[in-house]
Structure formats: structure tokens, C-alpha cells
Amino acid sequence: MDQLAVARQSFDRHNWTECYLTLSAADARTPLDADDLQRLASVAHLLGREPESLDAWTRAYGALAEAGAAPRAARCAFWLAFQLFNAGEHARGGGWLTRAQRLVEGLDCGDRGYVLCAAAHQTLAMGDPAGAYAMFGEAMELGERFGERTLYALATLGRGQAAVVLGRTDEAMGLLDEVMVTVTADEVAPVIAGLAYCAVIIVCQETFDLRRANEWTNALSQWCEVQPDVVAYRGLCLVHRAEVMQLHGAWSDALAEAGRAAERLSDPPRQEAVGMALYVLAELHRLRGEWPEAEDLYRQANRSGRHPQPGLALLRLAEGRVDAATSGIKRALDEAASPLDRAKLLPAAVEVLLAAGDLQAASSAADELTAIAEQLDRPYLTTVAAHSTGAVLLAEGNGRAALTELRTACSGWQELQAPYGVGRARVLLALACRAAGDEEGCEFELDAARDCFEQLGAAPDLARLPVVAAGPQCGLTAREVEVLALLATGATNRAIATELVISEKTVARHVSNIFAKLDLSSRAGATAYAYEHGLA
């Protein structure tokens, strides 16, 4: 059997390395024809050999254009534009897209559908989701009519992404599920299969559909395992796996996986997804109390294009820099326009604003989060909204109402198999039990929370538990307990602000909240209360 026959069989078996080596060797002896050049271009891309892939596509384009096969040449130009856009080379990609559009202008063929998809993605990026949605629909029709399954899947994927931007989430999920049926059945080109896995997972995460995100992440992992030499998409696969591991409490495994993802996505450099991996690493270090490492990684993620919020605000809060946390999360919210973007920030905003003593703003943020959760009807969002609402009710002194919300949140976290969420909800449940006069219930919830945090290695949360356990029976927040303890030493608001690295204005808000919750009118009364309850 000659080399080309071996290479073609290797391509059909998805043995990408053998195919690449065999085709390269054959090409070195006798230049490949257009069909084999396209195979070479595809496998080179999957193996992470982008320069070789682009060279093969360019040569295939030249051969087809010279032969007068304009539609097929246009498809090669599409793949060149596709890969160049993904590499961030928008000028070169735009040039190839323009060439492809000129070649299929006025033609009724499947190749025009590929060009339409590329143009539709540009239209979507320019802020016209309705226009992109229509263009993807036209490409879907061409794919169906000409029996082009890869084109149909690519166009359906794009239409689903446009539907998300248009706020038609249920329709989008239906479209994306349809794409994944064709992908898992191995009915599309491998390059599009990898792209579809990653794009669908990202959309699921963006819309808080964690069930689908977990399902497709597992499928992507299996897809990569049966093709061990694939480089393209493997880094993103590791990022998604790390995010799933983080949610499910396997933090050490998640750190290793995210580290491998960051390494893979850094070679070649300037890959946009590297910021995602760095942000996951930063989050894990923050949760474990490794704050200098977390700050450095948030900075690296920001340089790579991943906004460091809300993680950075939560880091500042953990460090006691409440003012920095407040200004950071407020700025991020001001820049977030869509409900989906705001929903990613609002839980952290509630936590930060409560620590700052701004109950009104925290309550507004929790109400907005609840409204978004009701609209999207996603278990994760419903759980986070109940958690945030319970925290606000507790801070307002309404312990009994808080209990209802927090039990809903605790059950939701358990169903999501998210132990860190369970632990944090149990801490708030303990305070709500105490506010309702149930000291034994408070003790039970704190014991359960301690078990969660110990198993996870959540050092900062473990360190805060003694403060919560010694707290008064009035629903004071952990920060308010700290302020009360310092106030009882005779410290002024300025001295307390210096000690806790917050502003005097924030201290004054905390003192006012303490007086209101404890029904006190003076610092002397607050000092007496602190000594009576073992807080001084």
C-alpha cells in the first residue's frame, strides 16, 4: 500500500500523528493534490501545528483556484479565515474572508454556507445578533439542502450563540443540543467537533446550565482521550474539567488540571483561553487562603484578557480591604449590561455590600439576582439567589425568614454536589438558628460546616468559624463581630478603621448596624454586651 493510501486510512481512523507524518513525507517527494493538502491542513491544526496548517490550506486554495474550482477554493479560504480569526489575526482573516465571499458571490452551493457562517460571526461580534441569527439560518438551510452535515452543525452552533445574545435561552439550548447530537455521532469534521464541544460548554456555563456543562465536559474529555495526539481544544478541555472539579470540591485535582491547561494554552502564546485557566487557578488559591499567589494569577488573567472580577473583589474582602472590594465590584457591575453578565457578579456584590454595612444596596442586589434566576430558571442561579437573599434577611435581623431561604440554598448546593456552597450556607444557617433562639441547631450547623471546610482545605473559612461560633444571638455579621470586639477595647472609629484596613465611614456604618441589632444606644452599652457574650 502506498503512502497516500496509508495516510488516508489514518485520517479516517483519526490517527492524526501517523496521518500528518505520512502526508508530510509524501509531500516532500511529490507535491500533494488539493484533497490531500486539505487533509494535511486539518490534521496539522488538530496537532497544534498552525503554521503548517495555514501553509497547506493556502496551497490547496491556490491549486483549486488555478483549476477554476471557485466554490472549493472558497471553502479553503474560509478555513484560513477561521483559523486566523481564532489566532487573533483579524486583518489577515478578514482578507481571506473577503476573497472567499467574492468566489461564491451569486452561487447556490454548500460552500457559500461556510462563507456565510464566517460573515455571521463577524456580524455577531460587531453587535448585531439579530442579523447574525438570520445569516446563520440561511447557512443552515444551505447545509441541509446540500447534505453538508458539517456546515449544518457549524451554522446551528452559530445560531444558538446568537440566540443566547438575543435572550432566547431555551431556543439556544435546543439548537446546541441538536449540534451535539451530530458531533457525538461523529457526523462532522473533527475540527468542527472540537470547536462545537468547547463553544457549547462555554454557552452552558455563561447561561448557568451546569448540568449540560458537566455532561458535555465529560463527553469532550472522552473525545480527547480517544484522540490522545490532539492538541487543539485539549487546553480548553482541561479548563472546563478544572471548573467542574472546583464546583464538586476536588480542589487539588482542579489545581493540577488548571495548571496543565495554562501550560498548554501558553504554547503557542497569546491564546485567549489562557486567561480562563489563570482565573480558575486564582480562584482556587483564593479559596485555599493562598492570597499572594491568587493576586498574582488574577493579574496574569487580566493581562490575558480575562476580567479578574468577581474573584478579585472577594480576595480583597478576605484580606479585610472592604473599600477596595466594594469599589471593584461596583465598577464591574456598572460595566455589565446583560442579565447574564450581572448574574455572575451579583452574588459577590451581596457578600461585599453586607460586609460594608450597606444593607440597602445588598438587598437590591439580591432582589435583582432573584429576578434573573426566576427568568432563566436554572438550578444553580436559583440556589445562589436563595443563598444571597438568606444572607440579606439575616443581616436585617429577620432570622426566621432567612432560615427558609438558606435551607433552600443548602438543598440546592447539595443537589449540585457543591460542598463549598453547602458549607457556606450552613454557616449562615447556624447564625439564623441562633437568631431564632435555637443554640443547639446553631451548633449542629457549625459542626457540619467545619467538616465541609476541613475536607476542602478552605483555610479562610475555617479561620472565621471561631468568630461565628462565639458570635452573639442577634445575627451580627462576622465583620460586625470584629468591629464590636475592637470597640469594646475603647478604640475609636479611626483606630478600628486602621486595624481592619477599612474606611472610617464603613466603621461608622458597622457601629450603627450593631447598635440597631443589639438595641443599644451607646458605646458603653456595646462594650458591656461584648464582655457579657465573651467577645471582648
Automatic annotation (TrEMBL):
Source superkingdom: Bacteria
GO molecular function, one term: DNA binding
Top-level taxonomy: Bacteria, Bacillati, Actinomycetota, Actinomycetes, Propionibacteriales
Keywords: DNA-binding, Transcription, Transcription regulation
PANTHER family: DNA-BINDING TRANSCRIPTIONAL ACTIVATOR DEVR_DOSR (PTHR44688:SF16)
Biological processes annotated in GO: regulation of DNA-templated transcription
Pfam family, one: GerE
Organism: Kribbella amoyensis
Domain HTH luxR-type: 468-534
Protein name: LuxR family transcriptional regulator
Keyword Ribosomal protein: no
